[in-house]
Amino acid sequence: MLAGIWAEPRPPGAPLRVWRDWALFWGLVAISLVEVLLREDRAWAPLVVGVSVVVAASLLWRRTRPLAAVAVAFGTLLAFDIARIVAVDVTGLDSIAGVLVLPYALLRWGAGREAALGLGIVLIWLPVTLAAVPASPAEVVAGYGFFLFSAALGAAVRYRTGSRDREIEQVRLRQRNALARELHDTVGHRVSAIAVQAQAGRALSAADPERALATLVTIEEEASQTLKEMRALVGVLRDGTDADLAPRRGVADIERLARPGGEVLGVRVQVSGDVEAVDPAVGTALYLIAAEAVTNATRHASGATHVSVDVTTGRSQVDLRVHDDGEASTTSPPHGGYGLRGMAERASLLGGTLRAGPDPGGGWSVHASLPRTVRAS
């Protein structure tokens, strides 16, 4: 733990000097001059004013150079207090209390080693200054308490700000993952469908021009819908609105994935059970998982002739199984792919599970089990 504290870097974003810093500096200098003028004994006035000005000036670097500011301010005070003990009969100025700001700045903006060294300087100075001015035990405790409280306050603010920054970064990461998942599952799926239809159209162009023309119409519709969804995603990114990125599809829409075999891979869909009782969020997730699994089979299932999609709605959960008859060793997308990761995330977010891998009977299967209803959190 101590090694971690020692290696702690400076927090980012330390603000530069602003008008308030200069106001604090000139305010302390003015208070010092007024305090000296109100004294009857002015023999050591230049010395005490000089000490006060040095302390006030060090506050200007308390954020950008916290250790240097502490070393200059408390080093000057240490020399002044030693001089008071040895040879100089003079009292300090109340404006020197501005050094209370430095332990706060040290723990708030300093690196770990800077904070440790700076606190060491403060703890060396404290007994010397308390020896220069005789104090009661209560005053000694109060003196240590003021400086330790200032340091503790700086550490607390630093921890709170760091914790908030980490939370903000986690939220941003979740948002990026959600946008990547939606982009892959919606736009990516449609682009894959366009590619499949284009391949079919090219194969049919010579033998059956009418079917090839119908394929072009389908490509046009898919492209228009893809452009619409892309604009919606761009709007979310630009405006920051909390929109529903996923299209409002459900379990019943899975039947639209069915297509006859022939030029492209055939897809058979069978849906059973009370589809209307499935929660809309669950239905959308099931549709996107099924669409992604069918797309993966179309792109990666070597030697496959058909894909089966079976949806079974039970009393408490919905089971989805997508199976192709391709070669199991080559049907998995390379490196896992974003598709499998996105499907697993969707199932997990709704409290379900997802398994994907070679099927014992041959081919590749994706099996998802999701609760029929989502509990409100």
UniProtKB/TrEMBL annotation:
The chain crosses the membrane at residues 21-38, 44-61, 68-86, 92-109, 116-135, 141-159. Residues 176-240 form the Signal transduction histidine kinase subgroup 3 dimerisation and phosphoacceptor domain. It is an enzyme of class 2 (transferase). Keywords: ATP-binding, Kinase, Membrane, Nucleotide-binding, Phosphoprotein, Transferase, Transmembrane, Transmembrane helix, Two-component regulatory system. This is histidine kinase. The keyword tRNA-binding does not apply. GO terms for molecular function: ATP binding; phosphorelay sensor kinase activity; protein dimerization activity. GO terms for cellular component: membrane. Residues 356-377 are annotated as: Disordered. It comes from the Bacteria. It catalyses: ATP + protein L-histidine = ADP + protein N-phospho-L-histidine. InterPro entries: HATPase_C_sf (IPR036890), HATPase_dom (IPR003594), Sensor_HK_TwoCompSys (IPR050482), Sig_transdc_His_kin_sub3_dim/P (IPR011712). Residues 284-372 form the Histidine kinase/HSP90-like ATPase domain. Pfam families: HATPase_c (PF02518), HisKA_3 (PF07730). It comes from Modestobacter marinus. Its EC number is 2.7.13.3.
